[in-house]
Write a structure and sequence with these properties.
The complex is a heterodimer of chains A (191) and B (166). Chain A is mostly helical and 191 residues long. Chain A has nine helices and no strands. Chain A has one domain (9-190): PhyR, sigma-like (SL) domain (Butyryl-CoA Dehydrogenase, subunit A, domain 3), CATH 1.20.140.160. The radius of gyration of chain A is 18 Å and the shape is elongated. Chain B is an alpha+beta fold and 166 residues long. Chain B is built from six helices and five strands, in the order ααααββαβαββ. Chain B has a five-stranded antiparallel β-sheet. The longest helix of chain B has 37 residues, at 57-93. The radius of gyration of chain B is 47 Å and the shape is rod-shaped. Chain B starts with 12 loop residues before the first helix and ends with a strand. Classes of the chains: A mainly alpha (191), B alpha+beta (166).
Chain lengths: 191, 166
């Protein structure tokens, strides 16, 4: 059977479960980019982000992750899996140090230092935003990244983060406010 | 996409976020991840081969040689008691005592179980006795010896007794 860029995820998934490597490769190439960028911004580590993507797709074809098309689209399911994998990865560090407060001014406790993204982002402004994002508390960061960087709706974010839509709305508003505040502080420091 | 009610104090946030979006647009997962995933996928869906098809020629040869050696060893172990038994049986057939000889031509159980054995006088050529294990020299090979033959009720020869081998 031929495979086109318009072949649906469901069809590719069906063929992948029958052992069609081309279908799996097509699924991977279709979704790896956004998933990797989400993981990268979310955890701040290129290695952890790559591991997260690998583990998510591994779980998909081995059947360890039970994706149900009736409960949502595949990309959203993968975002949810990546988020949980990163939370699991961060759990030991969270036990050791408390989460940063919304208004805390300490230096990026949730990211590896120096961050590999620094090398990847050519734009100084983009790097400033990235650093400000990294200072957000994880639950605000989830909402801001998924909404601002991936264009997901409140409903989709609510499903991914397993919270209600009102929580998404408030987290997004607070996250954006915190982001703006941090960026303003940086601008003042620069001047 | 839902419309977020932006705060008034974040007017410059959207262009900055757009810059971050643009700068990350081309970021992809490292190539090695796809390679590893495809290998894992291939291994996961590889057709199940029976065990005998998973062995290569060398392994098959080693298995065949090992089996042959094992069978040979088992055969020798199984034959050893039989060989020992044969020797014991030969020893029991011929009994020499001060120049006299008793030669059982059948098993002792059969001889003892015969309902009506009888003795018959006869002469036996030394060449025949030689086949039963008695010593024969070239000088006396053509002679015959007097013997008593134990004959069963059915007329079959059960044993021979020689009073003198000389």
């Amino acid at each position: 059977m031929t495979m086109t860029p318009t072949t649906s995820d469901d069809e590719l998934l069906r063929r992948m479960r029958q052992g069609d490597a081309q279908a799996f490769a097509a699924l991977y190439r279709r979704h790896q980019g956004p998933l990797y960028r989400f993981a990268l911004l979310r955890c701040g580590s290129a290695d952890t982000a790559a591991d997260t993507v690998q583990e998510a797709f591994m779980g998909l074809f081995t059947g360890r992750l039970a994706f149900d098309p009736l409960r949502g689209a595949l990309p959203h399911f993968l975002f949810g899996v990546a988020r949980l994998l990163i939370l699991k990865h961060e759990a030991p560090r969270r036990r050791e140090s408390p989460l940063p407060e919304l208004d805390a001014d300490d230096d990026e406790p949730m990211t590896d230092a120096p961050c590999p993204l620094t090398r990847l982002l050519a734009s100084e402004t983009a790097e400033q935003v990235r650093r400000a994002l990294a200072r957000l508390a994880p639950h605000y960061r989830d909402a801001v990244i998924l909404y601002e960087m991936h264009g997901l709706s409140y409903l989709e974010i609510a499903a991914i983060c397993a919270v209600d839509i009102g929580t998404v709305r408030s987290r997004l508003a607070r996250g954006r406010a915190a982001l703006a505040k941090t960026l303003r502080a940086h601008a003042l420091e620069d001047t | 996409m839902d419309t977020l009610m932006h705060d008034d104090d974040t007017p410059d946030l959207d262009p900055r976020l757009a810059q971050l979006r643009a700068s990350m647009a081309d970021l992809d997962t490292p190539r090695c991840v796809e390679k590893e995933l495809m290998q894992a996928f291939g291994a996961h869906f590889a057709p199940h081969r029976p065990w005998y098809r998973r062995l290569n020629l060398l392994e098959w040869s080693a298995a065949a040689i090992g089996s042959a050696v094992g069978i040979a060893v088992l055969g020798l172990l199984a034959m050893a008691p039989q060989l020992a038994g044969q020797r014991q049986e030969t020893e029991a057939l011929l009994h020499l005592d001060n120049g006299a000889a008793f030669i059982a031509l059948d098993s002792f159980e059969r001889i003892e179980a015969d309902p009506a054995p009888r003795l018959v006088e006869t002469e036996v050529p030394r060449t025949v006795l030689a086949t039963l294990g008695l010593p024969v020299t070239p000088e006396n090979a053509g002679e015959a010896l007097r013997a008593e033959m134990l004959v069963g009720a059915g007329g079959e020869a059960l044993a021979l007794r020689l009073s003198s081998l000389h």
